[in-house]
Specification:
Blueprint lengths: L1 E3 L27 E3 L18 E6 L7 H17 L2 E7 L2 H9 L5 E3 L2 H11 L1 E8 L6 E2 L1 E6 L14 E4 L5 H15 L6 H4 L2 E4 L3 H10 L4 E5 H9 L8 E6 L3 E2 L3 E4 L4 H11 L2 H4 L10 E4 L6 H9 L4 H5 L2
Parallel strand pairs: 1-4, 3-4, 3-5, 9-10, 9-11
Antiparallel strand pairs: 2-4, 5-14, 6-14, 6-15, 7-13, 8-11, 8-12
InterPro entries: PhnD
Keywords: Signal
Organism: Paenibacillus hemerocallicola
Length: 319
């Protein structure tokens, strides 16, 4: 397994449009396994040469225990189906994975919705699949959580406390929880940090929920499905935290490919992934889920929000 590091980090990310959030509402050693990559793009040429090694980018939170075993099994099975070698790359954060795709260190990766918008702009990422119970159910939620035993009972009680966002480029771990705070507390974006005693980025949803479980943070913004994966992996218990607020539905994180990959490779991987729930139901929550097709237009709501801020994704992430 190769860990990708990136020395440019996202900093101040401005908030999302208030209308989008409801108060009801997250390089060096490689472990080679076999595989190929996938979906369709007008920019991919069938005549293009297949890579000798196809690389999948993931985040550190996806490489813990049961989560890691699931990733390894996926790329092993993909390799059997496609017939080329695959390596699993672990990025430090979303921006590291985006940069790895831009520099062609990886060929496909799963991104959060906002991170995908940035990856499409910077790295030529093309979305093609989401994991869900159905295409119509391909949504998730951002939540603000606190330790279960915390005296904090409402968002106002977090004033002066320690608060964690997940990653600057995270939709559900930064942008949406930020706007929950703005809307519910009547803050302006530039006052969010000063509302708390300390605000920092944990580096991932898993790190945020672990900090909440260990009571080393008073509050955190996370995604509900990310937390569920950490709970299912046995790293925390559902009884370790409480949910204070939840966002409106957010489009699910897409699996993406680099747009210059060969079209025939894309089609083969696409065919494999859309049938994978039949051969390995354990990868899909015991057969309750599957991969469904997705397109760039499905994420227009995220792009429109950034545009409404009069700032590009690049500007939102620069420090």
């Amino acid at each position: 397994m190769i860990r990708i590091r990136n020395n440019w980090r996202a900093g101040a990310v401005i908030a999302l449009s208030l209308a989008m959030i409801g108060l009801t509402g997250c390089a060096a050693q490689s472990a080679g396994v076999t595989a190929g990559a996938g979906s369709e793009s007008s920019n991919a040429t069938a005549a293009a040469k297949w890579p000798e090694v196809l690389r999948l980018g993931v985040l550190p939170g996806e490489e813990e225990g049961k989560l890691s075993r699931g990733n390894k099994k996926f790329v092993e099975d993909l390799g059997v189906a496609i017939g080329i070698k695959t390596e699993l790359f672990v990025g430090d954060d979303y921006t590291a994975v985006i940069e790895a795709m831009r520099t062609k260190k990886i060929d496909f990766a799963s991104f959060g919705p906002f991170a995908y918008i940035i990856a499409a702009e910077r790295s030529g990422a093309v979305p093609f699949a989401v994991k869900a119970t159905s295409k119509e159910a391909a949504f998730y939620y951002s939540q603000i959580v606190v330790p279960a035993s915390s005296p904090v009972q409402k968002l106002e009680d977090l004033k002066g406390k320690t608060f964690l966002f997940a990653d600057p480029a995270s939709t559900s771990g930064h942008l949406f929880p930020r706007m929950i705070l703005i809307k519910s507390l009547g803050l302006t974006n530039d006052k969010v940090e000063s509302y708390f005693g300390n605000v920092s980025f944990s580096g991932g949803h898993d790190k945020s929920i672990l900090a909440i479980a260990k009571k080393t943070a008073d509050g955190a913004g996370v995604c509900d499905t990310c937390v569920k994966r950490v709970v299912d992996a046995g790293l925390v218990k559902a009884s370790d935290y409480r949910v204070l607020a939840q966002s409106d539905p957010i489009p699910t994180s897409p699996m993406t490919y680099r747009k210059d990959l060969p079209a025939d490779l894309i089609e083969k991987v696409k065919a494999f992934m859309f049938e994978y729930h039949k051969t390995n139901p354990d990868y899909f929550d015991g057969g309750k889920q599957a991969y469904y097709p997705v397109e760039d237009k499905d994420y227009q709501i995220i792009r429109d929000t950034a545009k409404a801020l009069n700032m590009s994704p690049e500007e939102l992430l620069k420090r």
